[in-house]
Amino acid sequence: MKHLIVVAILVIIVTALVLLGLNSIDLVPDLASDEGVAVDQMFTVQIYIIAFLFSLIVVLMLYGAIVFRRKPGDMSDGPHITGNTPLEITWTIVPLLIVLGFGTWGASQLTQITASSPDELVIEITGFQFGWRFDYPEYGISSSDLYMPIGRQVLLKLTSTDVIHSFWVPEFRIKQDAVPGMWTSLRVTPTEVGDYRVRCAELCGYGHSAMYAPVVAVEPDQFEAWLEGQVVEVEAPEAMTPAEAGAALVEKQ
Model pTM greater than 0.85? Predict the structure, then answer.
């Protein structure tokens, strides 16, 4: 019992130290979406469980190696232990319940994250080696920058022209694959005005590491102003010089 009490105290202390160390560094960037709240909650709980399990294993291993080491001159055999059924059942059932709990919780959160909103904005995203194109079908415009209004749910419909890519903005937390020949979807509601960057999270070729595109989250009125500026440019191509028209075509494609 003395050893159990000492080990329990050491496990608590080491767990606290591990959590203190992890919380002192920036494991993830600042959150900038409603959907990311649930992701961060699950991530935090997992970190606490991982810190506890790490401490439990390390403390037991080091404590046993130091306290129960063979004394000098002792050449006798240690006790022969064949098993401990209650302990084996416990370390099987407890992890199983934890995994089932996380699975149930994750499925519930996923249902909420993917739920649609009546006024959602639809943006079609095409990934290609090695870049992104963003189409706004409701407005008939296309852009190489992803503009999004904060406080409004956005339905991102993704596809690819060549290989599998993966759309990921770390501040939004969630990600989705862009698959050739089909459409996948991702819903996100930006909450913070700022400049972010989408990157490809799926190895897609030699230029994968440079497959970035700007993501700009703005106030709703600023988003409307940006849309108006884009629409004017699209509706008056004859006002462009041949070089400007060619540059617009390159940007669109």
Answer: no
